[in-house]
Design a protein that fits this description.
About 35% of the residues lie in helices and about 25% in strands. The chain has helices at about 55-65, 95-105, 120-130, 135-150, 165-180, 195-210, 225-230, 245-250, 255-260, and strands spanning about 15-25, 30-40, 45-50, 70-75, 80-85, 90, 105-110, 185-190, 215-220, 230-235, 240-245. It has a 6-stranded mixed sheet, with helices on both faces. Helix 3 (about 120-130) packs parallel to helix 5, helix 4 (about 135-150) packs across helix 5 (about 165-180) and helix 5 (about 165-180) packs parallel to helix 6 (about 195-210). Bound molecules: adenosine-5'-diphosphate and magnesium ion. Keywords: ATP-binding, Cell membrane, Membrane, Nucleotide-binding, Transport. It is a peripheral membrane protein. This is Amino acid ABC transporter ATP-binding protein.
């Protein structure tokens, strides 16, 4: 008998699911994020657009602490972190346990799927719930099966990633991110590595997640899609937010218009 799984109800808090305040990030001398502030309300979708190299991936990676900002603050659910450095240059105020706890609340879907090739589809999806959250295999499997069903990949649970199309791999990666039951789901150009005929199957899954009220932050070059699903659109230009607001406002902003539809 398999254990049944009901997803936990989403909290109906008025506070933002995630708030970044004045994030600064350098790589050596290069200042990639120059004081970025961003809030994502519970149950809404925010899309980030901007040229290559503008810092979009770095911003997402800071939001789930794959990168550590040099300065600034990040509040995830009810937990806030302020980033500063001590004289040795180490980031102060974030221990390992806190890092792991915060990472479990914000999960990411990558452009290149990043599935573990040596694990089956189900193995990929249950790994983090078992290892990071300490769930039993049985419980993680019930959750994993639920989300594989959700993305239409339940019938391939025993397949290995190499035998799946890019679109299928990305749907598994989405199930893997959902299986952690995060407060915020991040997508970094989730369709950019796909064959054109596979793009829509992945956008369809993301659209369904938006419709059911998932809190998401999405970097994409699919402008029509961004316009359609986003409650908030952010235009990032050289490490700064140059425009943000409703899709309509941002697409109408002259700075952003030059990016979205350069004058012929
Ligand atoms: P985007 O996703 O908008 O294309 P990125 O956040 O990937 O932009 O990169 C922003 C800038 O930071 C680029 O100039 C890139 O070369 C640089 N960069 C990103 N990651 C690193 C890194 N790990 N080390 C050094 N430079 C990096
Ligand atoms: Mg990028």
């Amino acid at each position: 008998m398999t254990a049944s799984f009901e997803p936990s109800p989403r909290p109906q808090a008025a506070a933002p699911a995630v708030a970044a305040h004045h994030l600064i990030k350098h790589f050596g001398d290069l200042e990639v994020l120059k004081g970025v502030s961003l809030e994502v309300e519970e149950g809404t979708v925010t899309s980030i657009i901007g040229s290559s190299g503008s810092g979009k991936s770095t911003l997402l990676r800071c939001m789930n602490l794959l990168e550590r900002p040099d300065r600034g603050e990040l509040a995830i659910a009810d937990e806030a972190i302020r980033f500063t450095r001590n004289p040795q240059g180490d980031i102060v105020g974030l221990d390992r346990r806190q890092l792991q706890r915060l990472r479990a609340k914000v999960t990411m879907v990558f452009q290149q799927f990043n599935l573990w090739p040596h694990l089956s589809v189900l193995g990929n999806v249950i790994e983090a719930p078992m290892r990071v959250k300490g769930l039993s295999r049985r419980r993680a499997t019930a959750i994993g099966e639920h989300y594989l069903e959700r993305v239409g990949m339940a019938d391939r649970r025993d397949a290995y990633p190499a035998f799946l199309s890019g679109g299928q791999q990305q749907r598994v990666a989405i199930a893997r991110a959902l299986a952690m039951e995060p407060r915020l789901l991040l997508f970094d150009e989730p369709t950019s590595a796909l064959d054109p005929e596979r793009v829509n199957e992945v956008l369809g899954v993301i659209r369904d997640l938006a419709d059911e009220g998932r809190t998401m932050l999405l970097v994409t070059h699919e402008m029509h899609f961004a316009r359609e699903v986003s409650d908030q659109l952010v235009y990032l230009d050289q490490g700064r937010i140059a425009a943000s607001g409703s899709s309509q406002d941002v697409f109408d902003d002259p700075r952003c218009r030059r990016f979205v539809a350069p004058a012929a």
